[in-house]
Specification:
Blueprint lengths: L1 E6 L2 H10 L6 E6 L9 E2 L7 H10 L4 E4 L2 H5 L2 H7 L4 E2 L3 H8 L1 H10 L7 E4 L2 H11 L3 E5 L8 E4 L2 H10 L4 E5 L4 E10 L3 E3 L3 E3 L2 E3 L3 E4 L4 E4 L6 H19 L2 E11 L2 E8 L7 H7 L5 H8 L15 E7 L16 H6 L3 E4 L2 E4 L2 E4 L3 E8 L3 H12 L19 H4 L6
Parallel strand pairs: 1-2, 1-4, 2-3, 4-5
Antiparallel strand pairs: 6-9, 7-8, 7-9, 10-11, 10-16, 12-15, 13-14, 15-18, 16-17, 18-22, 19-22, 20-21
Helix pairs in contact: 1-10, 2-4, 5-6, 7-8
The protein binds adenosine monophosphate (AMP) and glycine.
The site of adenosine monophosphate has 16 residues, from strand 7, strand 8, strand 9 and strand 17.
Length: 415
């Protein structure tokens, strides 16, 4: 099977790496990255328009296309492929609005009776200020459109809220602050059925102990112990199935959830796989993923199952100094072979080949990923690899997965 992966980050490298292990698969990616180039052919994505991707798929005679990032989905890449009769995994542009607009998503949750944080939507800064009185502090302010995980501010007092209101472009969602454990719940959907992937947990803020500004994600781990079976059933019944029913959703439906004392509540929907959640997911998946993706694209997911390795997998993101603010690129990267020799898999996110070898080319540069017999071992294994990789100004969190250890110990571990 000839499989085309759209995108060129860590999520797409993890997907390409996993799919390349499928018997008989040939992997193509547009634009891909130097990591993906080790498992497949990287192609020019041209202007990234739906038509450009379709032409590329036709040119290489792709049997199946899988979309990584949200932008091509929002622009209608799935609509273009379907009109041309080409198999693709992803939602059409109408369903992609669930991620493309926070206001649209919130209204959808309420209409579909999907549990979510209390909120108001406002069109201007004056109304946003007035809304602050309704929720108290902390309060959550969200810009409406796509913001690569950076359009959300948690304001702890009025001054922070005022600053956020001045910096975010209306319309805004002003939202109740929820507490609990955050879970990334991702299901592969075919318009009728859902195949849930194992639960994962992201680490959104840039510094240890969940402090500092939000990023696209500084690390994630995949562990079946994150959710009980009854929690999984509740999420499927209250969140995933109602969404499939209302939208005939196809592709990856990613519910960012807060597990509150009153049950799961949706913080956001994404219409794609998570980044970096995909890295530990692909690392831990024991089944061949290609048949499940093909079944999803053909609307025959019913009865398809996925097997997972028993032990968890953990991914630690190595970022450029300054990320999520301004950062510099072009720093030489060394030590990847040593990290691999320690048994870790290194997924490329923001890298490129420079005159002297591999160099940094993004905020999130690499995702070092490893498994282990239990979460503690997986964490030890992944940091053994992280220690081997070097580039000037490397920043990474030292506490990825640490909070999850509570489930095993019955007490907080370390941080
Ligand atoms: P979002 O892009 O909506 O997922 O928001 C990014 C991050 O902000 C989430 O992963 C949470 O960590 C945090 N967040 C968003 N909404 C809320 C909320 N209502 N209560 C608490 N934290 C939130
Ligand atoms: N890791 C969060 C996201 O992919 O949106």
């Amino acid at each position: 099977m000839r499989i085309l992966v759209l995108g060129g980050g860590g999520r797409e490298h993890a997907l390409a790496w996993k799919l390349a292990q499928s018997p008989g698969a040939s992997i193509f990616a547009a634009p891909g990255n130097p990591g993906i180039a080790q498992v497949g052919s990287c192609l020019d994505a041209s202007d990234g328009s739906p038509q450009a991707y379709l032409s590329l798929a036709e040119q290489i005679r792709a049997d199946l296309t899988v979309v990584g990032p949200e932008a091509p989905l929002v622009r209608g890449v799935v609509d273009a492929f379907r009109s041309a009769g080409r198999l693709i995994v992803g939602p059409d542009s109408s369903a992609a609005r669930l991620e493309g607009s926070k206001v649209f998503a919130k209204n959808f949750f309420v209409q579909s009776n999907i549990p979510t944080a209390g909120y108001v939507t406002v069109d201007n800064q004056a109304d946003a200020r007035r809304a602050l009185d309704r929720f108290g502090f902390p309060v959550v302010l969200k810009a409406d459109g796509l913001a690569a995980g950076k359009g959300v501010v948690i304001a702890h007092d009025r001054a922070e809220a005022e600053a956020a209101i001045s910096s975010l472009k209306p319309p805004l969602v002003v939202e109740e602050f929820l507490t609990g454990e955050e879970v990334s719940f991702i299901a592969l959907c075919d318009g009728r059925d859902a195949l849930p992937l194992a639960p994962t947990q992201d680490h959104k803020t840039v510094f240890d102990g969940d402090t500092g500004p939000n990023t696209g994600g500084m690390g994630a781990y995949c562990d079946s112990a994150i959710l009980t079976e009854s929690q999984t059933r509740e999420i499927l019944n209250r969140v995933i199935y109602p969404t499939i029913e209302a939208t005939r959703f196809t592709g990856f439906l990613y519910a960012g959830l807060m597990m509150t004392t009153a049950g799961p509540k949706v913080l956001e929907f994404n219409v794609r796989l998570g980044d970096p959640e995909t890295q530990p997911l692909m690392h831990r998946m024991a089944s061949d993923f290609a048949p499940a993706l093909e079944a999803a694209a053909e609307g025959r997911l019913a009865g398809v199952k996925l097997e997972w390795n028993a032990g968890p997998s953990v991914c630690v993101v190595l970022a450029s100094a300054g990320y999520p603010g301004p950062y510099e690129s072009g720093r030489l990267i060394t030590g990847l072979e040593n990290a691999q020799a320690k048994g870790t898999t290194v997924f490329h996110a923001g890298t490129r080949m420079g005159p002297n070898g591999l160099e940094t080319a993004g905020g999130r540069v690499l995702g070092v990923t490893a498994g282990g017999g239990d979460l503690k071992l997986a964490i030890e294994n992944v940091y053994a690899g992280v220690r081997e990789v070097h580039f000037e100004g490397t920043h990474f969190r030292r506490d990825i997965g640490r909070k999850g250890l509570r489930r095993y110990n019955g007490k907080t571990a370390g941080t």
